[in-house]
Amino acid sequence: MSVTIASPQLRAQVSDKGAELVRLQDERGRDLLWDGDPAFWTGRSPLLFPVVGRVSNDRIQVDGSEYELPKHGFARGSRFEIKEVEPSRCLFRLHSDEATLRQYPFPFQLDVSYTIDGTTLTIAASVTNSGSAAMPVSFGFHPAFRWPLPFGAPREAHAIRFEREEPAPIRRPVDGLISSKAETSPVRDGTLLLDDALFEADALVFDRLESRSVVYGAPQGGSIRVDFSGMPHLGIWTKPGAGFICIEPWQGHADPEGFDGELSTKPGIVLIQPGGARDFVMKITIRHGGV
Question: Which of 88, 183, 187, 273 is most enclosed, with most CB atoms within 10 A?
Fold first, then answer.
């Protein structure tokens, strides 16, 4: 089941499976989001919880016990309750249950709201600790935008412009884990020129990110601004030849190679105290100017 929200400038469709954004269109009905073609990747904009990326041996350690947990966690495959539907806003909720507690032994409530205001879609996730112990959490957004965007510019003209310079080295996934070896940042003068060759060795992981917003598009025509204040990490990914580019704000990332510690000590994890909550927010704004 899905719900649709809209403004005169933007329309979004959200599925109860994973509380996932599955369609995003501008005022002319042009699709901005990837269509989930299974020849490349069936995702569109999954939510990553309670971990981002893969954990070592697909298992987490909590108080000396091991729990099997899949890559990116279980939220993206879970059915959320639809709690509110208004013309320009909707709210989805996921509670812990017996199945989640077998993978992640922490009671929680995850609320995800989608709100459209003019040309901006705001996705806000709130994670509440319903238990009696501190809860280690990561969270990530994973939207896949069309590449090229439907504004008329060719694929090779597209780029991502960062809010700030990004001189720090990047990382790559190796068997799903973060490599211990760093690579020179491919960002030059604040701009990442997009090319399939960038992704032959998998995603770009910015684990020492300076920016908290980027603009994606081509010099001519429309573009998309992604804001993620409070999210300190970023992944950028596609499969070479596919018609999408993922711009992924994260709190946390995959386990580093060789990591074998408790989940609470995993790099990028935040701890939510009993009864407390943590918010994670991403904004997507459609712009009529280029990058």
Answer: 187
Q: How many domains does the chain have?
A: 1
Contact between 238 and 147 (Cβ < 8 Å): yes
The DSSP secondary-structure symbol of 98 reads H
Return the closest-CA partner of residue 104 out of 82, 140, 72: 72
Burial-class residue 126 by CB neighbours within 10 Å (0-12, 13-18, 19+). middle
Tokens of 49: 């919880």
- pLDDT at residue 69 in the model: 96
Q: Over the stretch 203-230, which tens digit does the pLDDT of each residue have?
A: 999 999 999 999 999 998 899 999 999 9
User: Residue 236 corresponds to which tokens in the numbers above?
Assistant: 């950028």
| 170 CB-near residues (< 8 Å, 6+ apart) | 182, 183, 184, 185, 186, 204, 205, 206, 207
CA dist 226 and 111 (Å) reads: 21
Domain at 230, CATH number:
2.70.98.10
Q: Quick check: pTM over 0.85? A: yes
Q: Are the C-beta atoms of residues 158 and 290 closer than 8 Å to each other?
A: no
CA dist., res. 107 & res. 105, Å (int):
7
The C-alpha R_g of the chain, in whole angstroms, comes to 18
**Domain containing 52: what range?**
2-287
